[in-house]
Design brief:
By secondary structure, the protein is mainly alpha-helical. The protein is built from 5 helices and 4 strands, in the order αββββαααα. The chain starts with 5 loop residues before the first helix and ends with a helix.
Length: 109
């Protein structure tokens, strides 16, 4: 089996027997988020799931900002930056806290 550095550049890779792999090998692996207490790392997918859970349990009067989500995740042992929370939230097509608050208040009235 031969591997080339092209997996980093996004071009197809030649693998054993002349078969071409159309996507980079990183496609098959998920990134990890460090644990706040130095313990085991958390998968990015698990962190995204946790963010979605926190947002799903919000009420109109208690909408969580990205900073508050970071605090809650750090309390749960997940070391993450606010910009990473924002990136994951946007990737899941979840609006900002301001927009979520407006949406929830509009539904409540």
């Amino acid at each position: 089996m031969t591997f080339s550095s092209s997996s980093r550049s996004g071009s197809p890779d030649k693998v054993g027997g002349g078969v071409f792999c159309p996507s980079p090998f990183s496609y098959f692996f998920t990134s990890a988020i460090a644990a706040a207490n130095g313990g085991e790392a958390h998968s990015a997918e698990a962190v995204r799931h946790r963010i979605k859970q926190l947002i799903d349990t919000e009420t109109a009067g208690d909408v969580l900002s990205d900073d508050t989500i970071v605090e809650k995740l750090r309390a749960a042992g997940i070391d993450i930056a606010r910009r990473t929370v924002a990136k994951y939230r946007e990737a899941m097509r979840i609006p900002s806290s301001v927009q979520r608050r407006r949406d929830k208040l509009a539904v409540a009235t």
